[in-house]
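does this look right to u?? S-adenosyl-L-homocysteine version
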Amino acid sequence: MLSEIQGVGMTSMRTRERLISRLYEEGITNPRVLDCIRSLPRHLFVDEALAHRAYEDTALPIGYSQTLSQPYVVARMTELLFSRGTPERVLEIGTGSGYQTAVLSQLVKRVYTVERIAPLLEKARQRFQELGMRNVFARHADGGFGWPEKGPFDAILSAAAPHAIPPELLEQLAPDGVLVIPVGDDDQQMLQMVVREGDTENFEIISVEPVRFVPLLSGLRG
Ligand code: SAH
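got this back:
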């Protein structure tokens, strides 16, 4: 497993276990998701100066006014993506540090991820390479349009919040596909789960819980 490759010390193992217990108490029960978070070295996804806080259940800055999501939020969104079975092809919008991507890469066949800020994407790509994650395909693009050439996807996860769900994302959902996305303005966002009903154009929308994400911005940043 990854944890062995990374040579985890005892202190780190204990702080990781504490995080897993906390996530469980907060209602994360999917054992595959918990195991994955336990074994994944989150400290490699932040600056060295923040590494000692990597196993706290808190969001951490990654530069360019962006943040690596709180472990609870990563776990919750991943669990929701799996609530209708195991997706094979997953699209992620907002690669950021690449941590959520890495979680998904352990659990599904292929992960497609898009990020609009080039230097963040570059760093994330290096991490995927160092960790030997060969099922991750990353692209510098505006994720508001999805990744039409690679769709349809069994599941789509957005780590950035639009004001309203972009129709392109719904179009790129496979039959019975699941989209998990925060929607709304800065101070009033709701995590939503959208399920395509079979191969129809009907979508069931479930409001999950209030959340706080960075906004989904349009256009690219070099
Ligand atoms: N899942 C990430 C969270 C990063 S925060 C992690 O684990 O670190 C959300 C990310 O979405 C930011 O990096 C931001 O630049 C990106 N983002 C915002 N709008 C976007 C868009 N339209 N297309 C692609 N990425 C976008």
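Residues 62, 66-69, 93-94, 96-97, 99-100, 114-117, 120, 142-144, 159-160, 214, 216-218 surround S-adenosyl-L-homocysteine (CB under 6 Å). idk if thats expected tbh
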